[in-house]
């Protein structure tokens, strides 16, 4: 989905999406070496393949980066994300994130209810969410 990131603070389209999908919590994070504490450690964490037990919603407010996700054959799909892109990853999708050569990105993080931060690295197949994601892919293929 593409939105006008220059007017995110007062965007009626964003408000409509937040209301329709119950995105009640929001914050903004700037992922740059000089703005994010423990930048190097966080970048390693973001790049390690992981999943979340809740949906992950991100709205790119400035700059560009990459999101890698696994397809149903367990192959990587690289998604280029740029200013104005909003993406929602369903719970249980293995993914990793990286910046491009500019090494900076500003993004809005959205949640239904309170934020849930835990990430489970690749060997998290014992959770129910990865199986639900694979069933969804099988139905849509």
Form type? globular
Order of helices and strands: HEHEEEEEEEH
Helix content: 10-25%
**Rg (C-alpha, Å):** 15 Å
Distance between the termini: 21 Å
Count of separate DSSP helical elements: 3
Largest sheet: 6 strands, antiparallel
**Please, how many domains?**
1
Structure description:
The chain is α+β, with helices and mostly antiparallel strands. It has one domain (5-140): Jelly Rolls. 22% of the residues lie in helices and 36% in strands. The protein has three helices and eight strands. It has helices spanning 12-20, 39-47, 128-140; strands at 25-32, 50-51, 56-70, 76-82, 86-89, 95-99, 104-111, 120-121. Strands 1, 3, 4, 5, 6 and 7 form a six-stranded antiparallel β-sheet that branches. A hairpin with a 5-residue loop joins strand 3 (56-70) and strand 4. The longest helix is centred in the last third of the chain and has 13 residues, at 128-140. It is globular. The mean pLDDT is 89. Pfam families: ARD. InterPro entries: ARD (IPR004313), RmlC-like_jellyroll (IPR014710), RmlC_Cupin_sf (IPR011051).
């Amino acid at each position: 989905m593409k939105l006008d990131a220059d007017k995110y603070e007062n965007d009626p389209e964003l408000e409509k999406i937040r209301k329709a999908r119950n995105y009640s919590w929001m914050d903004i994070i700037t992922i740059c070496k000089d703005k994010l504490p423990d930048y190097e450690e966080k970048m390693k964490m973001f790049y390690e393949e992981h999943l979340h037990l809740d949906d992950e919603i991100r709205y790119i407010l400035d700059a560009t980066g990459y999101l890698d996700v696994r397809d149903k054959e367990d192959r990587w799909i690289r998604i280029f994300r740029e200013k104005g892109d909003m993406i929602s990853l369903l719970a249980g999708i293995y993914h990793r994130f990286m910046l491009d050569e500019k090494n900076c990105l500003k993004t809005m993080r959205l949640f239904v209810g309170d934020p849930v931060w835990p990430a489970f690295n690749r060997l998290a197949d014992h959770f129910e969410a990865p199986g639900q994601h694979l069933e969804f892919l099988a139905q849509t293929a």
